[in-house]
Every structure is written in structure tokens, then in C-alpha cells.
Design a protein that fits this description.
alpha/beta
Length: 408
């Protein structure tokens, strides 16, 4: 099945905005366009339901029902129970709250593992536990390739004292897709839980957490065609053992345990629009049925097939140049279509030059100071990052390559 790009783009109002319609968008990893169902739900909530949800009158009941719908439908698509999915203001904030719970959960002499491949959101909050006496062990990447080798994790787990392994599904600069199920199995065999940062992967197809086995999985709705919310799945078997971080009287409700403040009602409700969009994609390409998890898996594969096809020509072009360094694998099937390039000089002026060519992208360290430093790339000069999703077209990529020929 081939992705119907005309249908896809019809679901994103941004492609009709004059200042955006005539430009190619390659900063999707910083935040994707919002799909129409999300925008419609958010607008409707503020117009018709901006009251305290769940009260005994129509507007409040409708608002609460829509919030519940978002949780239930996204959880079903990802293969977790409804109460195992919760929302927060951002992935960074969600991770910080989880880190505070883990700090109180760990016993004397117990340790956690972090990587130097992560965005700072899944690194900094965990590393700060060292200030509280927690042993933090670093799982290091290959400095030449950025590859995170599971074999290097094994000795870190050997003494049985690690209780949590934190790692990315894929890095926001290296972009190599890590073997999550394999890594989770290694952690579980050593008596540790696994926390996966999925921010850079989820926009390319919601993961099947039932298959991956992760105990915690976090991603950002605003990079997954939705509003500015962080979404986190926490397995009940772990979540109910971690100390409650919410109001004490909400402590027996899993999806409230790691939300210290009241949720953003409108944005939680609008997140149901992500499910609307994914379901619409499925129905357009495959017809109605089957169950949500299978529907999401079919859409995931549809997105990935398109992204691999459009990303490979860009990777080939960059790999063949001898005046830059392509970060991460040169094979599109091994990575997310987020392509970082070390130019050996400050990258931001190049992104500005590309903007003048009609290419919207950016440059910098992208909060990935640790992986860039580990690979010998100066974070101050940064990298040029060119990030695609399933609504990126073959023509967009051709236009980008032509522009790169002129500005590099």
C-alpha cells in the first residue's frame, strides 16, 4: 500500500497557509504541524467546554468525556491499559517528576543507567539523582558512529544493583532506531525496569508497547501532530510501586500519580484528535477494522515505508559529499528520517541561507549536547538538522537537495 500524500496533506491546515504552503518544512523534529482533528477539538473545547470537567452539567460532562476519550483511544492504539496512560506539560517535566519518584524508590546501593545518546530530557533529570547519592552509570555510544551497542550495557548490569535503565527509542540527532525490545529484555533479566524516551520515534508511527515491553515510554504530542502535551505510558506493575507524586488523595489512581498539578484540560481533550487522524489514515488506505492496536500498527508501517523512500535520496546525497559529516546511519531503514549534519563550521548561518531558498529548517545543538560532544562535534557550532515525517514529499526532498547544492 502506498501512502496517499494528497489525502495526508489535506488533513493539515498548515499546507493552505500562504506563508507555509510555498515552502518545504524540514523542522518537524522540533514540532510537527497539527492535524485538523486536533485543531478542531482544541477550538471546540475553548469555545464550548472551557469549564471544570466532569461536573453534573452538559458542557462539563462533554469536556470530561473528551479527556477520557483521548486517554482510552491512544492507550488502545499503543497496547497499554487506559489507566496506564497519562498526560503532563512536556516530556521533560514528566521525566523530572518520574525521577523524583525513582529517587525515593531506590534503596541503598542501587543504581540507574543513562546514555550519552539522549536528548537532555531523558538524561538530565536522571543524572541529577547523583546529587542525592544515587549511583548513575553511563552507557556510552560509539564516538565515531553514535551507535548505542546493547553489548556495552551488559557489564553495567552485571552486579544486579541497577533498578532502572533509561535510553532513547532513537536519538534526535543520531536517529538510529535502537532495538528496544532487546534492550528491555536485558534490563528485565537483570532485575531492572526500562524507561524509553520515544519523542523522536513516535511521530513516525505510534509504538506497540505491548510488543516492546517497556515499563515507561514517553513522547511529545506536539511532535506527533497534536497539542503541546507530554504523554507517558507507565506499566501498573511499576507505577503503583513508585511513590505518588500527585495529590495524596489521588494516589490510588495510576494516571494521576505522576501529575502533580492539574492537567491542561483542553490540550488533553484535543489529543483525541491524534487518534482521529490515525484512524482516518487507516480507513482511507485500508478500510474499516480491525482493533485499535492493529490499526495503529498498519498506519505505523505505512508511514515508515513512505519515510524510508523519501529519506534515502537525501542520505545518499549527503554521504557522497566530502565536505560534511553525516551523523548516524546512511541507511534509511535503520533510522528515523531526522538527519543531522556536521558542517565543520557554525551551522545556523546555513539554515538561514536555506530559509531564503524556501527551506524551513534549523541548526544548533537541539538539547543534544551530550551526544554531540561524545562524537567530537562542537555543540557551539551545532549541526544542521533536516527532519521529515510522512507528509514530506519527494518534491520537498528534491527541492532541499537542490538548495543544499547552492548554499553549502
Amino acid at each position: 500500500m502506498q501512502l496517499d500524500l494528497s489525502y495526508v496533506r489535506s488533513q493539515f491546515p498548515a499546507f493552505t497557509v500562504p506563508d507555509l504552503a510555498d515552502r518545504a518544512f524540514f523542522e518537524n523534529a522540533g514540532g510537527s504541524y497539527a492535524c485538523a482533528p486536533v485543531i478542531d477539538r482544541l477550538t471546540r473545547f475553548y469555545r464550548e467546554r472551557k469549564v471544570q470537567p466532569y461536573a453534573p452539567y452538559a458542557a462539563a460532562q462533554a469536556g470530561g468525556a473528551e479527556m477520557d476519550e483521548a486517554r482510552a483511544r491512544l492507550a488502545a492504539m499503543m497496547g497499554v491499559a487506559t489507566h496506564e496512560l497519562s498526560f503532563g506539560p512536556s516530556t521533560t517535566a514528566n521525566t523530572y517528576v518520574l525521577a523524583q519518584a525513582v529517587r525515593r524508590w531506590l534503596g541503598p546501593g542501587e543504581a540507574i543507567v543513562v546514555t550519552d545518546q539522549d536528548h537532555e530530557a531523558n538524561s538530565g533529570p536522571w543524572r541529577r539523582l547523583a546529587e542525592e547519592g544515587v549511583e548513575v552509570r553511563e552507557w556510552k555510544i560509539n564516538p565515531a558512529s553514535g551507535h548505542l551497542d546493547p553489548a556495552r550495557l551488559v557489564p553495567l548490569l552485571a552486579d544486579g544493583r541497577v533498578r532502572l535503565v533509561c535510553f532513547p527509542h532513537c536519538s534526535n540527532v543520531v536517529a538510529e532506531i535502537n532495538p528496544v525490545a532487546e534492550i528491555v529484555a536485558l534490563a528485565h533479566a537483570a532485575g531492572a525496569a526500562a524507561c524509553v524516551d520515544g519523542v523522536s520515534y513516535a511521530p513516525h508511527g505510534l509504538p506497540d508497547l505491548g510488543a516492546l515491553g517497556a515499563d515507561i515510554y514517553l513522547f511529545s504530542a506536539y511532535k506527533t501532530y497534536g497539542p503541546h502535551q507530554g504523554i507517558m505510558a507507565i506499566r501498573e506493575s511499576l507505577g503503583m510501586r513508585l511513590p505518588n507524586q500527585g495529590h495524596w488523595f489521588n494516589g490510588e489512581t495510576l494516571y494521576k500519580r505522576f501529575t502533580p498539578a492539574g492537567p491542561d484540560h483542553a490540550q488533553v481533550a484535543a489529543s483525541a484528535g491524534i487518534a482521529d487522524y490515525l484512524d482516518a489514515l487507516h480507513d482511507h488506505h485500508f478500510g474499516a477494522g480491525p482493533e485499535p492496536r492493529e490499526r495503529a500498527a498498519a498506519v505505523h508501517d505505512l508511514m515508515r515505508t513512505h519515510e524510508i523512500a523519501i529519506c534515502q535520496p537525501l542520505l545518499d546525497y549527503l554521504r557522497d559529499r566530502n565536505d560534511l559529516r553525516l551523523v548516524g546511519p546512511a541507511e534509511a531503514e535503520r533510522r528515523a528520517p531526522t538527519v543531522a549534519v556536521d558542517l565543520g563550521r557554525p551551522a545556523e548561518p546555513v539554515s538561514a541561507a536555506l530559509a531564503a531558498e524556501g527551506i524551513n529548517c534549523w541548526a544548533g545543538d537541539f538539547y543534544a549536547v551530550r551526544p554531540l560532544s561524545a562524537m567530537g562535534i562542537d555543540p557551539k557550532r551545532g549541526v544542521l538538522r533536516l527532519s521529515m515525517v510522512h507528509y514530506t514529499s519527494v518534491a520537498d526532498v528534491a527541492r532541499l537537495i537542490s538548495a543544499l547544492d547552492r548554499v553549502l
